[in-house]
Amino acid sequence: MALVVHKYGGTSMGSVQRIQNVAQRVTKWVKAGHQVVIVPSAMSGDTNRLLGLAKEINPDAADMSPRELDMIAATGEQVSVGLLAIALQAIGTDAVSYTGWQVPVKTNNAFTKARIESIDDTRIKADLAQGRVVIVTGFQGVDADNNITTLGRGGSDTSAVAIAAAIGADECLIYTDVDGVYTTDPRVVETARRLNKVTFEEMLEMASLGSKILQIRSVEFAGKYRVKTRVLSSLTDPNIDINIEANSGTLITFEEDDTMEQAVISGIAFNRDEAKITLMQVPDHPGIAHKILGPISNANIDVDMIIQNQSNNGTTDFSFTVHRNEYKKAMEVLQNEVVDTINATQVIGDNQVCKVSAVGIGMRSHVGVASLMFETLSKSGVNIQMISTSEIKISVVIEDKYMELAVRELHKAFGLETQDQAI
Ligand code: ADP
Ligand code: ASP
Ligand code: MG
User: Do 146 and 107 reside in the same domain of the chain?
Assistant: First the structure.
């Protein structure tokens, strides 16, 4: 008997029929003797619909109270846990549903992007001991003042892995609308290949660089608490052999082993949500980066890449990227609090950029990755605006109209369609 967490995303919960399929699949696991905790998302499109209603009242997201947005968005998951409990009960499987505050899943009070601080497993464990399937809403929690919070878009992944860690589950299975983690988004590159295994470090990079398959915080939890995590399809026949299902998809591993594919690059990630900001001719002396980025950080805006150019006549150009949603706010902060104090001549912004990255632990022991990446982009006529590297990734910022072309060409150039290695 194992204790497992199943997470089902929006598409997997997208209709009454799909919810009934989930109930059948889970019942198969229960009949095989396993204890199951389920963490579903809202039905597909529901979170967008709910937030869209608020937007109809106030089109400027920045003006809306994030507390109230969380109040609205969290209801999508409440509907889906109730429906799933009813679907399970209808086929004779004992089940009970809980919202985040009933468990409780305690978070900080950073509305719309709250972080989980603790999860009380008492109620979950008591129900499991009674032979029930326990269904807990994804995406939501409660802060110290009993306000409902949400964990940011895609946050049900994080709820699932955090609950798996809190209850000491043997495995967290993330059921979704693709059958695993691919070399790149299979919706963009048809020839993308599924990986049987991916290392935790690579998954962390891919998630942080924009692969929407898993929310980054879920991968961080998996790493911190060593949660065995697998990404697999919810769209297969719910009655397929449980042993086949349990070994399907992509396993996130914490050790490299001989059965890993020996690829230099494991995947190409991309992120359309980027915006680039440049301050022209800022004085090149100590403290300038702090004067620029201090107010940005005080405004709770995350900065991603930062580049400072070679000094010329005592001044330099300073560029950085932020999430596209925070672009307007960042420009305002610079105009109001920074430009005059540091005597920059101009602030230029561009929110039509994206980031494309090659990720692979093989980069540690191979040279030539950067050069193949730049050669490929140059042959495709794509201009590189910014570059950043770490031990296992290279990222470039490019004009967003070239994103799909760049991803396709890099995927081909690094031999990701086949097992062959380009370098
Ligand atoms: P869910 O609703 O189940 O959470 P998401 O839409 O959040 O599903 O994530 C699954 C989607 O992630 C896939 O449909 C796919 O388009 C996208 N995706 C992006 N990068 C990858 C990748 N490297 N491998 C697999 N899927 C990816
Ligand atoms: N329903 C939430 C969203 O759409 C959380 C999730 O699906 O993971 O972002
Ligand atoms: Mg998701």
Answer: yes
| pLDDT score, position 39 | 99
pLDDT > 90: what percent of the chain?
Answer: 86
The DSSP annotation for 30-85 comes to HHTT-EEEEEE-PPTTHHHHHHHHHHHH-S-GGGS-HHHHHHHHTHHHHHHHHHHH
Check whether residue 68 and residue 168 sit in a common domain: yes
The number of the ligand nearest the C-alpha atom of 154 reads 2
Ligand 1 atom nearest residue 183's Cα: 23
pLDDT at 63 over 90: no
Domain range holding 324?
Answer: 267-413
Same domain, 129 and 237: yes
Q: Do the domain assignments include residue 19?
A: yes
Gap between the terminal Cα atoms of the chain: 45
Do residues 238 and 358 both lie within one domain? no
Distance 312 CA to ligand 2 centre (A): 47
Do residues 363 and 355 touch, judged by C-beta distance below 8 A?
no
- 204-263 confidence digits (pLDDT tens): 999 999 998 999 999 999 999 999 999 999 999 999 999 999 999 999 999 766 555 567
CA distances from 189 to 133, 193, 300, 393 (A): 38, 9, 35, 20
Q: How far apart are CA 422 and CA 412, in angstroms?
A: 9
Q: Which protein residues touch ligand 1 with a CB less than 6 Å away?
A: 9-12, 41, 154, 176-178, 181-182, 184-187, 211-213, 267
For residue 423, tell me if it sits in a domain: no
Rounded Cα distance between 382 and 371, Å, is 14
CA–centroid distance, 47 to ligand 2, in Å, is 7
Q: Looking at ligand 2, which atom is closest to the CA of residue 153?
A: 9
Instruction: Give the Cα separation of 218 and 414 in Å (integer).
Output: 28
Whether residues 247 and 282 share a domain: the answer is: no
48 and 178 housed in the same domain: yes
420 occurs within a structural domain: no
Res 423 pLDDT > 70: no
Cα of 135 from ligand 2 centre, angstroms: 16
The finding on whether 47 has its CB within 6 A of some atom of ligand 2 is yes
**243 and 275 assigned to the same domain:** no
The ligand 2 atom nearest the CA atom of 42: 1
Tell me the average pLDDT of the chain: 94
**134 located within any domain:** yes
For 285, the token pair is 């002396």
Show Cβ contacts of residue 388 under 8 Å, excluding neighbours closer than 6 positions: 305, 307, 394, 395
Q: Which atom of ligand 2 is nearest to the CA of 9?
A: 7
